[in-house]
Amino acid sequence: MLEKNDGFGLETSSRHSGVIHAGIYYPQDSLKAKLCVAGNRILYELCGRYDIGHKRLGKLIVATNDEESGELEALLERGRRNGAEDLKLLSRQELKELEPNVAGVAAILSPSSGIIDSHGLMQYFIARAGEGGAQIAYQTKVVGIERAAEGYEVRVEDGGGESSFITRVLVNSAGLYSDKMAELAGIDIDRAGYRLHYCKGDYFSLRSRQSTRVNRLIYPVPPSNIAGMGIHITFDLEGRVRLGPDIEYVDRLDYAIDRREQKLFYNSVKRLLPSIEYGDLEPEMAGIRPKLQEPGGEFRDFVIRDETDRGLPGLVNLIGIESPGLTAAPAIAEYVGGVVEERL
Ligand SMILES: Cc1cc2nc3c(=O)[nH]c(=O)nc-3n(C[C@H](O)[C@H](O)[C@H](O)COP(=O)(O)OP(=O)(O)OC[C@H]3O[C@@H](n4cnc5c(N)ncnc54)[C@H](O)[C@@H]3O)c2cc1C
Fold first, then answer.
1. What does the alpha-carbon distance between residue 116 and residue 129 come to, in Å, rounded to a whole number?
2. What's the gap in Å between 133 CA and the centre of ligand 1?
3. Is the pTM of this model over 0.90?
4. Fewer Cβ atoms within 10 Å of its own Cβ: the N or the C terminal residue of the chain?
5. Where would I find the H helices in the chain?
6. How far apart are CA 229 and CA 247, in angstroms?
7. pLDDT at residue 227, as a whole number
8. What is the side-by-side order of every strand in the sheet holding 170-172?
9. Confidence of residue 38 (pLDDT cuts 50, 70, 90)
10. Nearest atom (ligand 1) to Cα of 173
11. Span from the CA of 124 to the centroid of ligand 1 (angstroms)
12. What percent of the chain has pLDDT over 90?
């Protein structure tokens, strides 16, 4: 395993909401739907068995008017068809009983949504990989990929300069740079539809007060193009409340937060949580989604594929692994394992 940074998980995998999703939003039979539902089950099992920090808090998708309320039925149906079988539709009264501080006319309750210590999860993955014989080279950046007689010659740059090695199978899971990796291997990423668009999501922390207290993850009814799930209310494992992420397509990787966004966050969360005050919000952090979906474009699924039909057997590309990539991670690993085994 090659990693250009000094350690693991220093990019998107530590800049997210940390939510274990149930798989409600995604089109039926998409990889996002299937791998999210499978990943959800595997994650809870791993968390229980290996003592990885997590909380099965449950989540509410809250409709704040009749129009949104009408959309909940379709969302519920979609979620159930995807395999999120425990979803329940709540009336205004039932919502009020569960979350007195949340304003809404109806909601979907997803009991199997939760939060996870993603760093602890990555530590577990690294340890398991080590037990299985994997070696991890940090500060080692892939700078070239050439076809060789028996696979690929991979050129890397580390502290000592450039070197190369031959591998029969090459899995590209380079996150925000995975399209560049595919390009290094000789793929025309525009023709293949692999060009990534960076889509920033800011987070604000919310000062805790009795009148803004919530017990579950609180989400709005999502926008119809599902570029994101809408600014929601989440927690970390210590119980600190966080709002976000919003959606902003950007040209470069810059994680600075624009304080002017505070107004947008305040206005969108006030609909769900009327007692918040503007001064309760503080800029916290940002993450950047490696998105295949263009601004205003159609839904795009994860790309996870062996590139034999492009004349590149044994090259497995993982591109556009945005949300629910954390939830789906263990199911993605099994899926990629299957693809690789077919090659060997
Ligand atoms: C704002 C936001 C919120 C999210 N919220 C959630 C959520 O609540 N739940 C959920 O399930 N998912 C969520 N996600 C998605 C999830 O965080 C990602 O899908 C997941 O972290 C992607 O992991 P990855 O390993 O594919 O990518 P990364 O974590 O980006 O890892 C890729 C690694 O490849 C390395 N690399 C890149 N290029 C090279 C090179 N040339 N040579 C060597 N190494 C290289 C990088 O240094 C990096 O460490 C969210 C994402 C964002 C941005």
1. 20
2. 23
3. yes
4. C
5. 31-50, 66-82, 92-98, 118-131, 178-184, 189-192, 262-270, 325-343
6. 9
7. 66
8. 170-172, 312-319, 303-307
9. very high
10. 26
11. 17
12. 94
